[in-house]
Amino acid sequence: MSIVNEKIEFAGLNLKNPVFTASGTCGYIDELDDYLDVNQLGGWITKSITLKPRLGNPAPRVVETNGGMLNAIGLANIGLEEFIAEKLPIIRQKNTAVFVNLAGQKIDEYVEVASRLSGQDGISGFELNISCPNVKQGGISFGTDPAQIKKITSEVKPACGGKPLMVKLTPSVTDISKTAEAAVLGGADALSLVNTFTAMVIDVHTRTPVLANRTGGLSGPAIKPMAVYLVSRVYQDVAKDAGIPIMGLGGIRNGLDAAEFMIAGASTVCIGTATFARPDAAVKVSDGLRRFCESEGIKKISELTGSLN
Amino acid sequence: MSIVNEKIEFAGLNLKNPVFTASGTCGYIDELDDYLDVNQLGGWITKSITLKPRLGNPAPRVVETNGGMLNAIGLANIGLEEFIAEKLPIIRQKNTAVFVNLAGQKIDEYVEVASRLSGQDGISGFELNISCPNVKQGGISFGTDPAQIKKITSEVKPACGGKPLMVKLTPSVTDISKTAEAAVLGGADALSLVNTFTAMVIDVHTRTPVLANRTGGLSGPAIKPMAVYLVSRVYQDVAKDAGIPIMGLGGIRNGLDAAEFMIAGASTVCIGTATFARPDAAVKVSDGLRRFCESEGIKKISELTGSLN
Amino acid sequence: MTNKNNRSGVFEASVAGSEHFGEKICRLKFVLSGEGADAFKLASPGEFAQFQVEGLALPSNLPEGLEDRAFRQPILRRPFSFLDIYPYGEDMIVEIMCDIIGTGTARLSGLRAGDKVSILGPLGRGFAKPEKGKKVIGIAGGIGIPPVEHFLRQLCRDNPKQECFAFAGARSRADMPIASVQQGKNPENQEYSFCKHFAAATDDGSFGDKGLVTEVFESWFAGAGLSPADCEIAACGPEPMLRAIAQTAHKLGIRAQVSLEKMMACGIGVCQSCIVPVKSQLGREQNKLCCKDGPVFDSREVFAE
Amino acid sequence: MTNKNNRSGVFEASVAGSEHFGEKICRLKFVLSGEGADAFKLASPGEFAQFQVEGLALPSNLPEGLEDRAFRQPILRRPFSFLDIYPYGEDMIVEIMCDIIGTGTARLSGLRAGDKVSILGPLGRGFAKPEKGKKVIGIAGGIGIPPVEHFLRQLCRDNPKQECFAFAGARSRADMPIASVQQGKNPENQEYSFCKHFAAATDDGSFGDKGLVTEVFESWFAGAGLSPADCEIAACGPEPMLRAIAQTAHKLGIRAQVSLEKMMACGIGVCQSCIVPVKSQLGREQNKLCCKDGPVFDSREVFAE
Ligand SMILES: Cc1cc2nc3c(=O)[nH]c(=O)nc-3n(C[C@H](O)[C@H](O)[C@H](O)COP(=O)(O)OP(=O)(O)OC[C@H]3O[C@@H](n4cnc5c(N)ncnc54)[C@H](O)[C@@H]3O)c2cc1C
Ligand SMILES: Cc1cc2nc3c(=O)[nH]c(=O)nc-3n(C[C@H](O)[C@H](O)[C@H](O)COP(=O)(O)OP(=O)(O)OC[C@H]3O[C@@H](n4cnc5c(N)ncnc54)[C@H](O)[C@@H]3O)c2cc1C
Ligand SMILES: Cc1cc2nc3c(=O)[nH]c(=O)nc-3n(C[C@H](O)[C@H](O)[C@H](O)COP(=O)(O)O)c2cc1C
Ligand SMILES: Cc1cc2nc3c(=O)[nH]c(=O)nc-3n(C[C@H](O)[C@H](O)[C@H](O)COP(=O)(O)O)c2cc1C
Ligand code: FES
Ligand code: FES
User: Fold this and answer.
1) Which segments constitute the FAD-binding FR-type domain (chains C, D) (predicted)?
2) How far is the CA of C267 from the centre of ligand 1 (A)?
């Protein structure tokens, strides 16, 4: 037993520790069963769920870059019905928090998915994905306009049946404090940041974008310093005073990276791309974070949050 | 002699080839004399020049990240007078294009620096730095507001004495097409993009930002796919129809990287951080770009510009 | 396609050796011990593994065309099928044949005996065993050759009476990932000695016939006097080639398995990057995952008839 | 400080060998030929070079505390002073002593004989030769020890009558980058045999005196009967230590040269990252560059009196 108290209170939930796996990078968690015991994590976040199943974008959907990768999956998912029928029963057997990531083309769709799911057992909360750069209608357009963010948040919130609603912010804005504030005004219980940065890789021989979707979202270690900055901005400008916790993500691969996000202002952290390089990455991060606290003499992990000098 | 025609027409200038060294990464060029023959390049861009000398930010001013680095130099420079007295005579002996990068706290300062320099021999044009993330007043605030961009561009333009004025855009905006358009409406003869992305690295042991300035600008290979995307956006949305050429930069390290930016829409490219890893990086890029054209059977390098399918 | 075994994991392997054939191809041998050995004992031909390339040295003497292309910092693993897997005392040896095309393959090619590499695997579904008594015809192109060779070899190892035929194609001799070809020897007396027939084709005629390996196979089959019902095809290679093989197989009525290659990020079914569009039995469009449902598929599933 | 020579460039070096002392310290030997050898023939102690670390393998067996810290993809070079430089036939050998603290130093520590590394150098201004007849007292802490050792050794090589005294400090024995200390031998009979006196101090007393090396130096000097006017100090180490040495030197009236360490991106004076704030003669604040104007400075220039 470690002497470090890893428990985190987050948007009304009591978590074992601050480490999650990120939406779109851990499927519906059963895919990771062979490699990772999700019960060792604070929680996990489902792939975005839409009302109807989505095939998503054509291939190629991913391409690697220097210290990162682009993806344009296009919210491929099995849809609400199959999620409830096939996946929820498996999910309920896990003993850790799970946020369902909500996506849609119109506000009504978000509301419908949330209200259908809020009555279901085994779901801890919702993450509002208004920031996916890979879907043409909806998606990123919601995510850059504070008025829209406030509107969608306030309309989805009542559909959550009292469960916490976390709003996932896009980094691709001039002033992230404004979008963060809008989410808080709309009633967000937590903020998660960041989603991916819009980017493009061109095959110089064919002179064509490598991704079928032409552009994709940049994730991975390359984006970490930008994500840390944005978390610290939102924490200082908005979240701290509003008492709204932040889930930080973007390029986290080990305990020190996670500590950096927490010091910047995050209460929890999320592991995305790192899982692709190592399916048990999130558990390794959690182990590393505990070791870091031990070696620094930190008794409660939650003390890290916002402790930036 | 290569069979590839490397000449580029850029904002009225006739360049030997499309490759430049970037502002702030090649000093006043004499520092690179031992390593690189700048006459082999299309041109180079001075460190930002301000009216008065600036000491810049305290140290540490740089820190490395995954596949990139942050800097917060704070526009340290010798100031207009010393530049004219000490550096211009050396610069005039070079036989290639040079843009003077202009910076300031107020529009008046930009105008004054430009008008003092526009009468001087040996300067090919100006680059308007309205996008440095490391200076508190002025700097980035100009660079994110289209109205401000149009205003400063249109006021500096007449001070340039007919020499081309290139406006350097910040990537940290919701919609770069709007800022690009504003620069064009203000009279810009060319656009350069991108400047660095605001970011932060925290020392987890001291819980303090590593940079004395707390935040810095991310550059290097990590940002390349975002920069390529932004160049392609600006080319498609603004520059192509306006007939305004783009200078593309962000993480370029070899000929293939340069080709990617040109295919996305850039007429010229700029080498920044790569010079720190290898002082002759820009010449290597230029060599690599030529080899790429040879192997692809491209007779004129300028054909690459905007050739994205 | 064989069932995915459940013992896949992340294992540290030791490099036992590497052999370079020209600038483009190398063969790498890895040793797995303990749990890794246990997992790979259950691996079968056509399955693959994800090899760590981050943190491996980028060789300093890359050929000119590759220098710029390989100068990148990878974070993802790279998928490779197996050339062979066999026990070595308590340990298991995993061999791959690697086509050096970018940063990851260049880094792998620079490995030396004793280096450590993390391997995630075995992954996916490999080639299904043929029905009893059926002859197996392997047809492979380029870097698709190793898994097919592995499959045929393993079948003959398991059952010395198994009849196999092999057809290999590549752009040129230098591109053909068969050790004996690179060494100037005859594959029929070397790694393909277990095959009743081996034939090759190259685009430029530098090895085997000049032309397409599918044509070599078709004209051979026309004269071989084999009944399609007694045969099965196992194929791997570029997609146009696999499509052509599928069409021929469907026409002749031979069952064919094809191994596909897609860009993969995770290799374990979580990222949804490696989709293979298929039509469901009800004609509904659907995406399968190359990494989980494949890489080996029934030809009728992925290439419409 | 000596004039920067103009023959600095980017050269490919071969690793001639490496020697590990525990988990934290290693000594690396590089061979430079041709133009590289010509350039390094003119290098002098206290100068430095920028070593490539991108593309070098990240060792897989890092000690636990370093694993996470070193797991990063570097793009910049890393600056190192020299431990020694000497001819080897037509070639030149460059030795460095490396303190393994992060991704770059970990990668360097994994180099093996025959590996190639790009070196940019020699760079900066090293230690100025002492005035004729003056005795030189080297005082160094931690990873500041190698360049001071190099300076003293080279002085005695050039002039066997040169009198030198050396004082070395570190946190503990394991942190002291002196080969003989690591090997359990006495530096006075080994690499410091040319010194008239060698003394060491560690924070925990695990080697030499327990305490600060500056204190050891001061109490020695008080009893050594040397005239300050006959001595010069050459120092390198953590900034607080150099500040203390500068104060003592100013008090005693001994000329002191100090070698500073700053975060460096380029190493050649273009990035402005490595500033050393100084007061100009007119009292105006000014920044010098550690990489170009230093790393060796006159103590009065950088530490106010
Ligand atoms: C199931 C499977 C089995 C494979 N088996 C083998 C094998 O046995 N031997 C072998 O040599 N190779 C095999 N490959 C291909 C191998 O994975 C790629 O060549 C390798 O990932 C390229 O990595 P790189 O870093 O060298 O190239 P990169 O630098 O990443 O890319 C170089 C070029 O290759 C393209 N590319 C990269 N990855 C892929 C991919 N997965 N599919 C198609 N194009 C790609 C890129 O777009 C780029 O143009 C297999 C691939 C899969 C999916
Ligand atoms: C002129 C000069 C001469 C030097 N000579 C030697 C030498 O002979 N032997 C030796 O072992 N080291 C020497 N150093 C220090 C050496 O350059 C750094 O230890 C090395 O760059 C660290 O690289 P890394 O990738 O291992 O660490 P990183 O992973 O980059 O960083 C690890 C930690 O060290 C800090 N750090 C990194 N670089 C520096 C730096 N330049 N100064 C202070 N802190 C830093 C980082 O902030 C971080 O906390 C010298 C430095 C300079 C400027
Ligand atoms: C392949 C892939 C798929 C993703 N899918 C989703 C998604 O469906 N919904 C969502 O909100 N974010 C999605 N993301 C974004 C991640 O959740 C995360 O915000 C981003 O990748 C940054 O974190 P990282 O650098 O740790 O990967 C996806 C990311 C990747 C790489
Ligand atoms: C150390 C450093 C200093 C810089 N100084 C300036 C500057 O003075 N003016 C400016 O317009 N851009 C400056 N830049 C930005 C670069 O010109 C360039 O836009 C950016 O680094 C992206 O290109 P790169 O990835 O090739 O470095 C600086 C960048 C670095 C790394
Ligand atoms: S590679 Fe990730 S799902 Fe197949
Ligand atoms: S390290 Fe770049 S100026 Fe000194």
Assistant:
1) 8-129
2) 12
Q: How confident is the model at residue C126 (pLDDT cuts 50, 70, 90)?
A: very high
Q: Is the pLDDT of residue B117 over 70?
A: yes
pLDDT tens sequence across A203-212 = 999 999 999 9
3-state secondary structure chain A: CCCCECCEEECCEEECCCEEECCCCCCCCHHHCCCCCHHHCCEEECCCECCCCECCCCCCCEEEECCEEEECCCCCECHHHHHHHHHHHHHHCCCCEEEEEECCCCHHHHHHHHHHHHCCCCCCEEEEECCCCCCCCCCHHHHHCHHHHHHHHHHHHHHHCCCCEEEECCCCCCCHHHHHHHHHHCCCCEEEECCCEEECCEECCCCEECCCCCCEEEECHHHHHHHHHHHHHHHHHHHHHHCCCEEEECCCCCHHHHHHHHHHCCCEEEECCHHHHCCCHHHHHHHHHHHHHHHHCCCEHHHHCCCCC
Average pLDDT, chain C: 92
Contact A301, A293 (CB under 8 A): yes
**Rounded to whole angstroms, how far apart are CA atoms C205 and C245?**
21
Output phi, psi for B53, to 5 deg: -60, 150
The ranges assigned to domains in chain C are: 5-123, 135-261, 262-305
SS (H, E, C) B21-38: ECCCCCCCCHHHCCCCCH
| Pocket lining: A168 vs ligand 3, CB cutoff 6 Å | yes
Dig out the tokens for B42 from the structure.
Answer: 């299309």
| Omega within 30 of 0 (cis) for the link into D295 | yes
Q: Please tell me the CATH code under which domain D135-261 is placed.
A: 3.40.50.80
User: Contact B42/B15 with Cβ under 8 angstroms?
Assistant: yes
My answer on whether omega of the bond before D122 falls inside 30° of 0, hence cis, is yes
Residue C301: pLDDT over 60: yes
Give the Cα separation of B94 and D170 in Å (integer). Answer: 49
CA B307 – CA D107 distance, rounded (Å) = 40
Instruction: Please name which of C270, C268, C257 lies closest in space to residue C291, comparing C-alpha atoms.
Output: C268
> A250 C-alpha vs ligand 3 centroid, how far in Å?
9
Residues D182-222 have pLDDT tens digits of: 999 999 899 999 988 999 999 999 999 999 999 999 999 98
Q: How far is residue B259's CA from residue B288's CA, in Å, rounded to a whole number?
A: 9
Tokens encoding D297: 């400075």
Angle between helices A255-264 and A224-234 (to 10 degrees): 30
Residue from B66, B75, B71 nearest B113 by CA: B75
Question: What is the percent of chain C where pLDDT is above 70?
Answer: 98
The two tokens of residue A286 are 């959690």
Q: Pull the structure tokens for residue C28.
A: 């790498």
Chain C partners within 8 Å of D58 (Cβ) = 54-55
Contact flag A64-C77 (C-beta cutoff 8 Å): no
CB within 8 A of A33, min separation 6: which ones? none
Give the pocket of ligand 4 (CB within 6 Å).
B 22-25, 47-48, 71, 73, 75, 101, 129, 132, 168, 195-196, 219-220, 223, 249-252, 271-274; D 271
Instruction: Check if the beta carbon of residue A7 is closer than 8 Å to that of residue A17.
Output: yes
Same fold, C5-123 and C135-261: no
Q: Mind listing the domains of chain A with CATH numbers? A: 8-304 (3.20.20.70)
Is residue C1 predicted with pLDDT exceeding 50? Answer: no
Pocket test for ligand 6, best of D50, D51, D263, D273 (most atoms within 8 A of CB): D273
Q: How many angstroms separate the CA atoms of A230 and A179, rounded?
A: 12
CATH of domain C5-123: 2.40.30.10
At D279-292, the pLDDT tens digits run 877 778 899 999 99
Backbone angles phi, psi at D298, to 5 degrees: -70, 135
3-state secondary structure of B227: helix
